[in-house]
Amino acid sequence: MTTSGGIKIPTHTSVLPLGSSVNDQGHLVVGQCDVMDLLAEHGSPLYVYDEQTIRERCRQYVAGLGSVAPDSLVIYASKAFANAAIFQLLAEEGLGLDVVSGGEITLAHRSGFPMERVYFHGNNKLQDEMDLAVELGVGRFVVDNFHELGRLDSLGQRLGMRIPAMIRVGPGVEAHTHEYRKTGALDSKFGIPISTGQAETAVVQATRARGVHLIGLHAHIGSQVFEMAPYLETIDIVLDFAARMHEVYGLDLREFSPGGGWGISYTDEDDPMDADSVARAVGQAVWKSAAERGLANPRIVIEPGRSIVGQSGVALYTVGSIKDIPGVRRYAAVDGGMADNIRPALYGAVYQPVLANRMEDGGTAERVTIAGRYCESGDILVKDAQLPRLSSGDVVALPASGAYNLAMSSNYNMALRPAVVMVKDGTARVIRRRETYADLLGFESALD
Ligand SMILES: *Cc1c(COP(=O)(O)O)cnc(C)c1O
């Protein structure tokens, strides 16, 4: 703990939402709300999102990119966490959306999101999703492969329109991140590789297609990336390609997206770049690279997901059973786990938990493994956490839980998804209600 102006601030400032503090009772305070009060009102487990942290990240990306490239757009990768209240907040901040399914498109539409700022990604878009996207006025299709290009052309011709599209190219760049989070390498299910000549074929086909209006190129190299180098490399590779396509086929690169994927802190050891610098660096690199190749400045689109919502979210769990295996390990089981957060089980994600009801416990930390309550031995939220000695009823908070937690959640074991509240200036509003047994039974046709 450090003390500043009488307010105790936990040392985990890089992982907790902005402005988080600890009150006189030693409780974690997020968005001026005591998380113990939130739990008492909304039940446990609970996901809390701090509105100011999301807005701040949006503003940094928008201002940073806008300062070097006035004609630009920041789009939020909705797969990090799709939620109507968050979509509405992002619309207010001037962002667009990256969507990958009919569900996300429908949610954007119903949230009143400006659909021209919605970009439709995905490596196997279904026909009804493509129809829906056109019907609801989605701004761009990001074409992932030849199969889609042909179908998009047919759709456009059938409707007598040229559907605005970008082509996702594979730059053949390795991002240093987990295998499952890499998307830019040659051997990837995403995009059309440049190095094999296939991207060139796609550009030729797209410019000739009467149902498609090719506006630009897109690349995305991965997620939870901490370095700028792979982005700079990607920008140069794609703009080299664009320059060649311009020369040979007259391709007009009006828009270019080098993707998203910027990392956040899950523990104090992570050292992410700040959003403002990332956006500036990308903007400068794209325009510099374009100028060097004699290309006009393209409109720049960047696509952060995790770094918009990750730090804003905190997951709160209550400790139930505790199991000591002498000389081996102490397990503290909480009332959530892999059904609401599969990341540790899926790819070994590491979290730095805090004891939300005793933030200032002076006792020595001890090693404890925070286990989930679902029926898999791998359902462990945090292996070997360092926390004051836990008792049943304690509240463990996992910071940096805003992205890819609930987004990947399931009803495994017929678990109910927890409620989500958005906090701001001491007030909390429910932005997703807790699921009920009635919700689950609603899918059981035999019970209709
Ligand atoms: C997932 C994804 C992003 C965002 O990745 P983050 O790591 O959440 O920033 C951006 N663009 C595309 C195409 C994606 O698939």
If classified by CATH, what would the architecture of the largest domain be?
A: Alpha-Beta Barrel
Largest sheet: 9 strands, mixed
Contiguous helical run count:
12
Determine the N-to-C terminus distance.
55 Å
Total individual domains: 2
CATH topology of the largest domain: TIM Barrel
Shape descriptor reads globular
What percent of residues adopt helix (DSSP H or I)?
Answer: 25-40%
- Specify the structural class: alpha/beta
CATH class of the largest domain: Alpha Beta
Question: Would you write up a description of this structure?
Answer:
This protein is of the alpha/beta class. It folds into two domains: 2-43 and 312-441, Lyase, Ornithine Decarboxylase, Chain A, domain 1, CATH 2.40.37.10; 52-308, Alanine racemase (TIM Barrel, Alpha-Beta Barrel), CATH 3.20.20.10. The protein is 29% helix and 25% strand. The chain has twelve helices and 23 strands. The strands form four sheets. Strands 6, 16, 17, 18, 19, 20, 21, 22 and 23 form a nine-stranded mixed β-sheet that branches. An eight-stranded parallel barrel has the order 7-8-9-10-11-13-14-15, surrounded by six helices. Strands 3-4-5 form a three-stranded antiparallel β-sheet. The model is unreliable at 1-9 (pLDDT under 50). Pyridoxal-5'-phosphate binds at residues 77, 79-80, 98, 121, 220, 223, 259-262, 303-307.
Task: Spell out the blueprint of helices and strands.
Blueprint: E1 2-4, E2 7-9, E3 21-22, E4 28-30, E5 33-34, H1 35-42, E6 46-50, H2 51-68, E7 72-77, H3 84-92, E8 96-99, H4 102-110, E9 118-120, H5 127-135, E10 140-143, H6 146-159, E11 163-170, E12 192-193, H7 198-208, E13 212-218, H8 229-249, E14 255-257, H9 275-292, E15 299-302, H10 306-309, E16 313-325, E17 329-334, H11 343-347, E18 354-355, E19 366-371, E20 380-387, E21 395-398, E22 419-424, E23 427-432, H12 437-441
Parallel strand pairs: 6-22, 7-8, 7-15, 8-9, 9-10, 10-11, 11-12, 11-13, 13-14, 14-15, 17-19
Antiparallel strand pairs: 1-2, 3-4, 4-5, 6-16, 16-17, 16-21, 18-21, 19-20, 22-23
The chain binds pyridoxal-5'-phosphate.
Pyridoxal-5'-phosphate binds next to helix 10.
